[in-house]
């Protein structure tokens, strides 16, 4: 059994701060009242295997997030004992007190990651240290008990190795990984949860688009607001998502697949900042007079999730030059990446000028998905559409180049900056 | 056993809309695909009593929300079957799939209510129809399956009657009731939960302040923002609370008990709107030149929870006149209630002018709690305090009059506008 060796980092929480977890929140000490508590320690894991294993559905039959693997990993935090030894056990229900914080006040954090098989048939993760760092920040933002995310990463690698038979051996498919931490304080007083449950579940994914990439439609929405300055939009918290369900239904009723979240800062279309698309980061490609292209995504101002795919796209775009193309399919095209404010007025102007070449959403599950149509309402003028040109195969050239490049790095078919990480 | 009779309202959900629940969201139909499903029906309740009953702690030993009664009530919504028959059973853990929406995306709704014993020793609720209407709106806001809240109220009355021995027979004490609805869709796709679990748990409360009312301190905070126009601050959602835990810790580190949530709309203290205090609505009392008092609370602009206690305070204040005093202790004082924007600059000015007579927070758990000190930071001038005058007994005259009046109505010692409702 592939169990990580004893932690080089030690395994104690002193004064409530995991002395090893770089940057762990010293304020978390008020959980612990000076007690020396156990830290999360991958080397203490125990494994109870399922008596019988599930049949694995054909990748074509998989619906995202509906099928879970045979096992899950759990560890609990108790304010008097610290983190329990992690436990791998058959996938099954959690048992929780009805008064638990996770139901009542929602201090719930998750990450979305994927495991891939490389050409040697070995499992790989993609830039997992970025997920770990984001999870550390998210845990701190909702005042959950901290833990050493390096230990969590060892546990994730263990689970991926254990569930290797579930990783689809098909390009564009993957095993989706959902590390989750929830508050389990069994009391109704409104305060930070001093109990927690950390768990890892895994779900095999077929190709996101069964019949190849198809552009999606977006409806610009600003009366419902996803995130705001000083809020939690820049963290990966469960509570950022439920408020989007009702606006998403409204968009669907009007014939759009996802919401384009706008943030109203002023009057008119100029006052509507573009933030995210559904649960994805948003990019546009705009042609320049010099033959190059501007690729623009909104800046991380606190209302934008710092997505891994967003960061990977920006890195690849910035590394690209015709002399040294990080995106070989666009070898002859100078690309200029920008993190800058994008208003609905900008989108309309680029479109009217014939310069809006592409729009796409990016995220872990989908990687890259092109946008074909963006609806918006202008005061007193009803619903209008920005229509983007259609591209053969669904993706425009920039979306396609990014998608291909990222997927081949994720699957270990090409090396890039150490982004693809082996599990053993 | 006090079980409500067959529902006069019927018990079917047609096309996903509970045809009876006035105002139920017709858009919830997409859960049901035209199926005829069972609605929540109090008359179908089954009761399994606990084999042994717990000892009831002395009221002085109760910590808010830590002790639960012997039983809980649960009902589940399944997209193919609708609402299950409600089930009363011994209090115990919930069993839920780790992928459930409640952990991952937080479509979780709750209400806070209290049951009291009247002078005849019979249980009473306080304006429960307002909790039901707010819960209906909250459920709709996070796209949970709708239900007839009149049926829920019957179930709440049943539970209170069943757990009557837990209602403390002491003035100022009560049995706290926590109806909760959580999304239980067992899948990771980001969309509305088409499964739900509704439950009711109950917790006996001692006096909120063991040694009499003591004023609390508040720290004005605007870098972390509780609620935003277009957000969910006007709904009773679990997800509104976790983002406040970390700012609350920061305030505690600086020596303040709760956060006074400010909303920055412009520069300086004039640009900082006062919204809520901790998890309470906020009021100030300001003296007028004509001998009366202005009692001011921020308006329901979407960032403010429409609290029952807030509404009850406003109603009592508006009904008050020296000729017909709804607050007899203030018989000779003209009171002018206002729902209007209150800035930090207003608070400072009222204080400097010697007109800031009282500040207090109101909410279901605490009813009314006075504020003794409000800290704020002014650019470049460090932390300052607005200090409120001390009153014998902890409460100022308006806070005291409101607290006494509301509690005596809640406990059925005085009648007012039908606010106190019997359970049988």
What does this structure look like?
The structure is a homodimer of 424-residue chains. The first copy, chain A, folds into two domains: 36-205, Aminotransferase class 4, branched-chain amino acid transferase, N-terminal domain (D-amino Acid Aminotransferase, Chain A, domain 1); 216-412, D-amino Acid Aminotransferase, subunit A, domain 2 (D-amino Acid Aminotransferase, Chain A, domain 2), CATH 3.20.10. In chain A, strands 4, 5, 6, 7, 9, 10, 11, 12, 13 and 23 form a ten-stranded mixed beta sheet that branches. The first copy, chain A, has a six-stranded mixed beta barrel with strand order 14-15-16-17-20-21, surrounded by four helices. With 424 residues, the first copy, chain A, is an alpha+beta fold. Chain A has helices at 101-104, 128-141, 149-162, 245-253, 308-319, 344-352, 397-410; strands at 12-14, 17-18, 36-38, 46-47, 71-78, 82-83, 87-90, 94-96, 108-110, 113-117, 123-126, 174-183, 196-205, 216-221, 258-264, 272-277, 280-287, 293-297, 335-339, 356-363, 367-377, 383-387, 420-422. In chain A, helix 2 (128-141) crosses helix 3 (149-162). Chains A and B meet through strand 8, helix 1, strand 12, strand 13 and helix 4 of A and strand 8, helix 1, strand 12, strand 13 and helix 4 of B. Strand 8 (94-96) of chain A pairs antiparallel with strand 8 (94-96) of chain B.
